[in-house]
Amino acid sequence: MKRIAVFASGNGSNFQVIAEQFEVAFVFSDRRNSYVLERAKKLGVPAFAFELKEFSDKQTYEEAIIQLLDQHQIDLVVLAGYMKIVGPTLLAQYEGRIINIHPAYLPEFPGAHGIEDAWNAGVAESGVTVHWVDSGIDTGQIIKQVRVPRLADDTLGAFEVRIHEAEYQLYPVVLEELGANRKRDFCVQQLKSSPLFAISLGGKEISHSNFWAWLIDLKVDGINPFVEVFIPSFYSSGYIYESCTREEDHRDLSIYYQQKGQGKCHIVENKLKSLPIGDQLLKYEQNFKKKNYEFSSGTITGLTKVLELQSWQFLSYKVISERIINILEHTKGISSINRELIMLYANDISCLSDLLLEEIESTKDRYVWKGSRYLEELKFDDVFLKYVSNEIAREIEREVMIPAFQSEWGLPKVAISFHNKKATIDIKYHQQFDDQEVGFIGIQIEGKQFRLHSGARIGESSLGNKDNLFNKLLELGYLENYSNKEIRGRESSLTKQYGKYGHDIYQYWNIGDMSRKELIICIKEELPKVINTITKGLDFIKEKS
């Protein structure tokens, strides 16, 4: 994420909008009495101010600014009503890292009076532009811009207000696209106040799939522009849209279109609260049957990419949001109510994605068993846990699926399951007989427990009796006589000799805040003991009653 600094000379209303939504390293003003400094104080944002007249020349002035930027390791300078022209000294050091917002639709009406100049020219519409700063005046490469119409009953004051409102909407969109770090509290508040988000909690995947189907099917000026969220360059490729269906043969979305007279189907499989299953997607592809149509390609949606399949592309919720906003900005014929609804939805999924990805990133080296209070408040802690636990399981799998951990029963299998908002990771050796599992032994990690775990899978085995299995594992040295609140010399909260469910038994020690590396070390230390237990005679087949 980029560290940003905001430069402003006056009132600081754009700064206020930015600072409420994004992490701002500091604000700088070239006027010591500007109100933006007061805004910064109220928002708790560090502020600095000095004036050109305090220096011998502009070069020295900009050298002081560069020192400030370098000290705070700034990636992006955001000009928001900064009334100084950026000089060659600052530009030489930070070119390509300074952006500006201009209250007109550049290249129309450049300069310090963009709003007044547009008004006096009597144009039907003006706009707002965010652009990179170069050595000219409002001549840098345009990043993004929007049109603002002049209404029949407008006054200059009313027109100016709507221009500024467009600025407050456009700058955050650009900053997000450029990688500025959104504030967690802002995202949480936006989602809590959104009626669309509240509705979506009734079906965390279904609601989004339903919205996408409506969006794709929305016809504007004779075309369906939002089909390009999932099939980019749809119309430039000469495709002809036909329809979008929901839950046809269990597929989330089926987008039907014509390509050079041949019927095609693009499948969208939406995965937010669950993880994609490769076999399921291949079945959708290989078993697709509809008269006059053939499977063309597929999209897997989600937070992060967890699966690679040849005919399927991954599309993150973040990119979906960006594509929706981009299409919305370039499509004029959408009604105001639909425009507002679509923008709210795009902002919602952008905020949700930011929150979840930030939480995933912040815990990428840690073993975690629950989400933050923010995600719990939003009822998305279970989604976070699924993604993180899947990452941890895959890391464990890479470390243990090696010849060093081969046993008479083969290599361990790593599996993950979810129930009651808990993730369970199993690293187990399975004994097979006539292609059926008869028993297992290994490690199970759930919540704060590191479990030594075993169980029979055939009823006629004497080891199906939990006491018999415990005594056998005690005899083989895998489990311990539990009496001093410790297992393997580590603290345990067990209240009896062993825990149990179904035909399974386990002992555990407590684990808390630890790195994934530490967790994997514990697993790799324990697996040789599991292998030794198998070698020494654990056998669910021989122990038939």
TrEMBL record:
<dbReference type="GO" id="GO:0005829">
    <property type="term" value="C:cytosol"/>
</dbReference>
<dbReference type="InterPro" id="IPR036477">
    <property type="entry name" value="Formyl_transf_N_sf"/>
</dbReference>
<keyword id="KW-0658">Purine biosynthesis</keyword>
<dbReference type="GO" id="GO:0004644">
    <property type="term" value="F:phosphoribosylglycinamide formyltransferase activity"/>
</dbReference>
<comment type="similarity">
    <text>Belongs to the GART family.</text>
</comment>
<dbReference type="Pfam" id="PF00551">
    <property type="entry name" value="Formyl_trans_N"/>
</dbReference>
<feature type="binding site">
    <location>
        <position position="100"/>
    </location>
    <ligand>
        <name>(6R)-10-formyltetrahydrofolate</name>
    </ligand>
</feature>
<dbReference type="GO" id="GO:0006189">
    <property type="term" value="P:'de novo' IMP biosynthetic process"/>
</dbReference>
<dbReference type="Pfam" id="PF14281">
    <property type="entry name" value="PDDEXK_4"/>
</dbReference>
<comment type="function">
    <text>Catalyzes the transfer of a formyl group from 10-formyltetrahydrofolate to 5-phospho-ribosyl-glycinamide (GAR), producing 5-phospho-ribosyl-N-formylglycinamide (FGAR) and tetrahydrofolate.</text>
</comment>
<protein>
    <recommendedName>
        <fullName>Phosphoribosylglycinamide formyltransferase</fullName>
        <ecNumber>2.1.2.2</ecNumber>
    </recommendedName>
</protein>
<feature type="binding site">
    <location>
        <position position="58"/>
    </location>
    <ligand>
        <name>(6R)-10-formyltetrahydrofolate</name>
    </ligand>
</feature>
<keyword id="KW-0808">Transferase</keyword>
<dbReference type="InterPro" id="IPR002376">
    <property type="entry name" value="Formyl_transf_N"/>
</dbReference>
<feature type="binding site">
    <location>
        <begin position="12"/>
        <end position="14"/>
    </location>
    <ligand>
        <name>N(1)-(5-phospho-beta-D-ribosyl)glycinamide</name>
    </ligand>
</feature>
<comment type="pathway">
    <text>Purine metabolism; IMP biosynthesis via de novo pathway; N(2)-formyl-N(1)-(5-phospho-D-ribosyl)glycinamide from N(1)-(5-phospho-D-ribosyl)glycinamide (10-formyl THF route): step 1/1.</text>
</comment>
<feature type="active site" description="Proton donor">
    <location>
        <position position="102"/>
    </location>
</feature>
<dbReference type="InterPro" id="IPR029470">
    <property type="entry name" value="PDDEXK_4"/>
</dbReference>
<feature type="binding site">
    <location>
        <begin position="83"/>
        <end position="86"/>
    </location>
    <ligand>
        <name>(6R)-10-formyltetrahydrofolate</name>
    </ligand>
</feature>
<feature type="site" description="Raises pKa of active site His">
    <location>
        <position position="138"/>
    </location>
</feature>
<dbReference type="InterPro" id="IPR004607">
    <property type="entry name" value="GART"/>
</dbReference>
